[in-house]
């Protein structure tokens, strides 16, 4: 090998060949070219081997990327697939991205679907996004109980709530959004009503029975999750018109 990487908190050394990395990936080509500037040892004329320090990448994830660059295939598992997908996007490796997407779709689970959906929206992977939404529609209640659901961004949660096929009662969905909003409020240190402004617009409050709507109003006085002036009032108007 003629280049060394020091990867992750473990500072694991990974050895590779400049010619392989540079010809297979433009991102590595740029990285290695910068590494050569001013790094040549005048005593022997041999380019420095680095090392290049990549502290924010898990060694197993980086090794998967290296494996792909050398073999055009990759060995994945459910613990690293999403991170390898992230690396494939960062390094501009479209074929690796496709392999990761296929693996994630084939192994999707209740515990991981929200994280996969978040990645799909972030990286503009429409096919994976639709697959994740269809999965959520089939087991909505179970998904709402996961940590991944509470870690969704407001934009992605709003996309989930846009679906007309969620297998959950509307009141339970409102409660799930309330729990999500309190978690996000604590993490972002912003008011509940502020962090939930976008997802709340997708709630279908007129579907609630009058007794459920009255219960919702009582809960709403504590955290002001839902704007009274237009959302709750509109739901009552809908019942009145019926």
TrEMBL record:
Leader sequence residues: none
Q: Name one Pfam family in it.
A: BACK
User: What SMART domains would the database entry show?
Assistant: BACK (SM00875), BTB (SM00225)
Q: Return the InterPro entries for the record.
A: BACK, BTB/POZ_dom, BTBD19, SKP1/BTB/POZ_sf
Membrane-crossing segments per the record: none
CDD domains the UniProt entry points to: BACK_BTBD19 (cd18494), BTB_POZ_BTBD19 (cd18294)
Q: Can you give the residue ranges of the BTB domain?
A: 1-78
SUPFAM superfamilies noted in UniProt = POZ domain
Taxonomy, superkingdom: Eukaryota
What is the protein name given in its UniProt record? BTBDJ protein
Give the gene symbol.
Btbd19
